[in-house]
Amino acid sequence: MTIRELALAGTVALMLAGGQLLFKQAAIAPDAKNTLDIFLSVRFLLAILLYGLSTVLWVIVLQTAPISKAYPIVMIGSALIPIAAYFLFREPITVRYLVGFAIILFGLYLTVSTTGK
Q1: Which residues have C-beta within 8 Å of that of residue 76, sequence separation ≥ 6?
Q2: pTM of the predicted model, to two decimals?
Q3: Cα dihedral 7→8→13→15 (10° resolution)
Q4: Cβ atoms of 72 and 107 closer than 8 Å
Q5: Checking phi first, is residue 90 left (phi over 0); if not, alpha (psi -120 to 50) or beta?
């Protein structure tokens, strides 16, 4: 993958993670009395917008990058969410999670850096 493709795929990962964090904020907001309140909240609508924009960017990535190399980059966002949740929502992080996260990072390195040999 080129630097541009890596950067775009990384941006997609961050956008998706940001969307998830906005969904969580919308769900726990003090003014979220019911599901309709959540769906009409600014945070929820921003999350949907972020997801839509990330989809457009993802299609741009897929025009040139092999999906087998690009998708693992996007998956890193899923691993970053618990770290952000620790700081934003005071959700706990265990040693087991940190070890798993390190394994994911190592797997990502192996996946993206291999040349097919």
Answers
A1: 10, 13, 104, 105, 108
A2: 0.83
A3: 120
A4: yes
A5: left
Domain range for 32: 3-113
Let me know: does 101 contact 78? Beta carbons within 8 Å. Answer: no
| Number of residues written out for the chain | 117
Do 74 and 6 contact (CB within 8 A), yes or no? no
**What does each of the 117 residues of the chain score in pLDDT, given as a tens digit?**
889 999 999 999 999 999 999 999 999 998 888 999 899 999 999 999 999 999 999 999 999 999 988 998 888 888 889 889 999 999 999 999 889 888 988 888 887 776 555
Could you give the number of structural domains in the chain? 1
CA 61, 62, 64, 65 torsion-angle sign: positive
